[in-house]
Amino acid sequence: MRFDVVTLFPQMVEDAARNGVTGKAIERDIVRLTTWNPRDYTHDNHKTVDDRPYGGGPGMVMKYQPLLDAVNDAKKQGLSGDSKVVYLSPQGKPITQALIGETTDVSQLILVAGRYEGVDERFIANVCDDEWSLGDYVISGGELAALIVIDAATRMIPGVLGDENSAQQDSHMHGLLDCPHYTRPERGELGDVPEVLLSGNHAAIERWRMKQALGRTWLRRPDLLKNIELTAEQTVLLEEFKTEVDVN
Q: Where, subcellularly, is it found (predicted)?
């Protein structure tokens, strides 16, 4: 898969992306990352990418022409024609695991990182296929959002993680939060590992993990349960969890 980021701070994106899971995927050529600086597509000595908004008001607005030219060059590099252009802004739809999963359907994802007060609306309306947001808050630019999208999407590409099941067990993959995890020592000053995890009974372990995932979701993100239809077994497990845990 190919990621292209249109950004005024290409070094920021490139440096951060070359670490961890994403960095290893780039080294192994499973994913490709290219950055495009809109300033390279300006035609004045000052490399101007922004201007005052029509109608007045505070701040500056990014001009659409440098962004358009950068996106067009990115598409030429992709060649397949199977690309998606996403503008990252506080006004977009919330980024979810399901939304990230849709990125695996395209071979090229072009992420546009806005700055200042935003970008010319004509660019968003005519060039971008979608608009995504990290959440209901504002940060100084879309670079951090682009890095999050790249990391989350890369994890879902076959061959990236050492164990193919790792991504499938992540929180939100199936609408629930993940269950608790433990490692050595078995017993210590902070408590003991639940006995069921030491039992070797895989059926009991899976049942415990599902119960904990359901319960943790109920405690921390009850809104998520409204979006999934629980099986009969899951309903029983959730009720068991409620009777076992003192929420006060």
A: Cytoplasm
